[in-house]
């Protein structure tokens, strides 16, 4: 019998909790209309470039990657970014976190994963890598924000740390993490 490593169990539990929160958010949002998350026309300015709210969207182009078609869910949007052989499925979601939810993420993230250096205050935004040794070596990046925004960049074995860092770095993580979101989904 093969045992699942504790870190994997922790991630699975967190993802299950996040899915549960998304369902609760969906139920609440059904009374308020459809999601307004839409693609931005151009790449977002670098994170933290000013204090203005930022759209919760995945732009058509990002850090030299071309964006594919957008898939919408009740509280999320997903787009594949492609550059040469690198294909990164990028999912952007938002859900209310329970009290202590972000602190729980921090404990899980810092307890067993390589931390990402993100262009945002660490008190508002945290991310970690899930990497394989290859061949070729590859990395995914999962990011949670105190505001409830969650971002996943998964390359399916095609993305390097530099690839996912470039994509994440081109999004307004600091604004989203601080809750400065223009026209959030409802």
Task: Walk me through this protein's architecture.
27% of the residues lie in helices and 28% in strands. The protein contains four helices and nine strands; from the N terminus they run αβββββαβββααβ. The strands form two sheets. The protein has a seven-stranded antiparallel beta sheet with strand order 2-3-4-5-8-7-6, with helices on both faces. Helix 1 (6-29) packs antiparallel against helix 2. The longest helix has 24 residues, at 6-29. The N and C termini lie far apart (45 Å). Residues 8-49 have low confidence and may be disordered.
Termini separation:
45 Å
Widest sheet, order of strands: 2-3-4-5-8-7-6
| Secondary structure: number of strands | 9
Low-confidence stretches: 8-49
What's the quick description here?
With 186 residues, the protein is an alpha+beta fold. It is built from four helices and nine strands. The radius of gyration is 16 Å and the shape is globular.
Give the key terms.
single chain, 186 residues, alpha+beta, 7-stranded antiparallel sheet, two-stranded parallel sheet, 4 helices
Helix and strand arrangement:
Layout: H1 6-29, E1 54-55, E2 61-62, E3 65-72, E4 76-83, E5 86-94, H2 101-112, E6 125-132, E7 138-145, E8 149-154, H3 161-169, H4 173-177, E9 181-182
Parallel strand pairs: 1-9
Antiparallel strand pairs: 2-3, 3-4, 4-5, 5-8, 6-7, 7-8
Helix pairs in contact: 1-2
